[in-house]
């Protein structure tokens, strides 16, 4: 299963509903931006949008996505066992909680007013009501919705190489779209305000749009306040429930003891996932997908207590199968210890949350090589066939390019695994020479790829090079001259380049 499709049914439902809402917001912003071309085009596009979104089917899909996304987000909050989390996740949650404060009044003024008070909420009607008194409020709504959606998309899509190649272009779009939308909003709002300064023009607009009278306006104002109060009362109840559950579990439950190899031993009430336990204790633990069971970066090796854990199911089973993990490898975000455990963290960042170090820090790549060698999981997929390994890597979301057969140079192919370095999954292809393993980290060449570099850390030699559209990092405790032979073998079959490589070795 592709990495984008992993996760529990609830996670997939939250994702799909979020994508529907993001598509609605994106088309709304793009509709605004069309005002740079002409106001007529903007109005025509708005008419087309509302024809779709306010149809019976459109209303059902949009309404179901809205209710589903909010409900599942609140359920996830209620189930929280710890409030420690990566900064990006905290920002996304805060933006999500802020959206209803800005959004509910907008829904009341448009959809509710149209549906129940027969208001024709055209762009001109909305502009006159919003500009200038509510312009800042509307701007905050747009930025909050856009920021929340873009964060969610980024931390979902970043799990594969193709996204990272187009991420800079998408970042430009993510910045440009709200800027263009807000620019048109400001210009159109100012123009509408000037035009409606004429009492006759304003009276004509009120007649044409069925502008709410004093009584209807009072009802709409009451609704704007009431829906906010109801929502935040529910939020307060959900947070209170989560806190009370944590306290009761801490008081009534017998604590479990979790020992981290090369780390502390902690005691905590059962119910939390292993990832939540490590976060709560401040133990550095990678989690690229935010604990959603998609990326496998939080995986741990169970040293003791494996028989006291239920077998992997659902999202965990799919993700572990995708990397051909052995039975003692589990996802920390999915297991909830109910008895004492001893575990080793496979991928440990410098600080809690996603790794912070640069990928081409020699210390980081050497540590990744050593983890594979000493952790008894040098490869997740064992094969001597380059084509089979390349196919497996693609199935794991790694568009790393062709796998090289270097047997003619004395390097036998052993297999591959997906390793996580500096917040990014990398294809780690394993070769062996004279009984010693060599890890070749292979990825598509981009602006972040290193120049040709050579180094050493704790007795391990590191080489970096780029060939065509591929970037390579070699790590091994082989002698430097032997690793140079592998570097030479990776070079293209051009005589002058081969001669230069041999001269460098000599």
- Tally the helices: what do you get? 15
Low-confidence stretches: 350-360, 494-506
User: How are the strands ordered across the major sheet?
Assistant: 6-7-8-9-12-11-10
Shape: globular
Q: Using the CA coordinates, give the radius of gyration.
A: 28 Å
CATH topology category name of the largest domain:
3 helical TM bundles of succinate and fumarate reductases
Tell me, rounded to a whole number, the average pLDDT: 84
Number of folding domains? 3
Q: Using the coordinates above, name the CATH class of the largest domain.
A: Mainly Alpha
Instruction: Please provide the ordered H/E string of secondary-structure elements.
Output: HHHHHHHHHEEHEHEEHEHEEEEEEHH
For the record, give the distance between the C-alpha atoms at the N and C termini, rounded to a whole number. 47 Å
Helix content: 40-55%
In CATH terms, what is the architecture of the largest domain?
A: Up-down Bundle
Strand content: 5-15%
Main beta-sheet strand count, sense and barrel state: 7 strands, antiparallel
**Pairing-aware structural class of the strands and helices?**
alpha+beta
Number of strands: 12
How would you describe this structure to a colleague?
With 506 residues, the protein is α+β, with helices and mostly antiparallel strands. Helices cover 54% and strands 15% of the residues. It folds into three domains: 240 residues, 3 helical TM bundles of succinate and fumarate reductases, CATH 1.20.1300; 90 residues, Roll (Ubiquitin-like (UB roll)); 134 residues, MucB/RseB, C-terminal domain (Phosphorylase Kinase, domain 1, 2-Layer Sandwich). The strands form two sheets. A seven-stranded antiparallel beta sheet has the order 6-7-8-9-12-11-10, with helices on both faces. Strands 2-1-5-3-4 form a five-stranded mixed beta sheet, with helices on one face. The two termini are 47 Å apart. The C terminus is likely disordered.
